[in-house]
Amino acid sequence: MTKNFSSLLMLPVMGATLVALSGCIVIDADEEDLHSELAISPHYGTIKAADITGDTVTVRVSSNGCTTKEFIGTDVRRMNGDRFSVGFYREKEDYCRANLPDGVALSWSFSELGIPDGAEVSVRNTVRN
Q1: Domain check: are 36 and 56 in the same one?
Q2: How many domains does the chain contain in total?
Q3: Which of the residue ranges 9-13, 40-44, 76-80 has the most confident prediction, judged by mean pLDDT?
Q4: C-alpha span between 94 and 100 (Å, rounded)
Q5: Half-sphere exposure of 124 (CA within 13 A, CB side)
Q6: Within a 10 A sphere around the Cβ of 61, how many other Cβ atoms?
Q7: Per residue in 113-126, pLDDT tens?
Q8: Does 128 map to a domain?
Q9: DSSP string covering 60-112, please?
Q10: Which domain of life is it from (predicted)?
Q11: pLDDT for 47-59, tens place per residue?
Q12: Does one domain contain both 1 and 61?
């Protein structure tokens, strides 16, 4: 015995399937847009101090006790010739509870930043103690 299904009976099932699938697509697109936006223009936070000595850049950043270099992202840009600028931004939050009013000093060598030895380097962040 064969039963014929009307195409009208299948419309609610197809509609529900399309709604469910379209919701997944929107969520994925929003997450990807957020990541690509951060990669293009990271927010450079205020730092407490910056020092460029020899071929090393040292910045003092706020910390709750756990901040290391792995918490801080760097954005290095070549200006012209041997002139570079570096922006520092927080990639990972520090949820520790230590009281460090002076923050922590973190250092990067020019080599770590991909900058040639002897280059002229400036820091793009606002410095405010």
Answers
A1: no
A2: 2
A3: 76-80
A4: 12
A5: 18
A6: 23
A7: 999 999 999 999 99
A8: no
A9: EEEESS---GGGEEEEEEEEETTEEEEEEEESS-------EEEEEEEEEEHHH
A10: Bacteria
A11: 999 999 999 999 9
A12: no
